[in-house]
Amino acid sequence: MSKDALVLLSGGLDSAACAWFLREQGYSITCLFVDYGQKAARFEKNAAEALSRSLGMTLENSSLKSDVQFGSGEVTGRNAFLVLVALLTNRMRSGVIALGVHSGTAYYDCSTSFAESMDRLIAEHTDGRIRLSTPFLTWGKKNIFEYYQSTGLPIELTYSCENGQMPTCGTCLSCLDRRMLGC
Fold this sequence. Notes:
The chain has 183 residues and is of the alpha/beta class. It is built from 6 helices and 5 strands, in the order βαβαβαβαβαα. It has one domain: Rossmann fold. The protein has a 5-stranded parallel beta sheet with strand order 3-2-1-4-5, sandwiched between helices. The relative contact order is 0.21.
């Protein structure tokens, strides 16, 4: 299998850590930011651009135009959608599509079952040339934060507020996670 990776980069801590983690594993990284109409798209995109520049990684962009307005919290099918957008738009002949999902959440699209199903789907569509990588699937948010800190990655460039506010709202699940971590 090729050592190419397309990392879904939201501009947050988990996806940035995932990109760096795979880079340390010897992968050649391209990042993909997807604007699917989320409230935070503008701030997330700015963070993804700043992170990719800082980390020396190429950033590609994709967007979906829709009348649907997404609120904060779980967006059913979001990670499946993101993975399929990555599959559709990637230029790799082989390698991995990577997500920074982690344990400790009740969301189905952060589960082992989800990762196995999507990996199988991707493999079937690509004759096994492309697979799904979820290196943090068994890690908790605190483990990812500790890893991020240990690498010296720029936490100040990340953005995580589901309500798309600046300053951040402080009340959505992403803001509460960051408060709990002390960042």
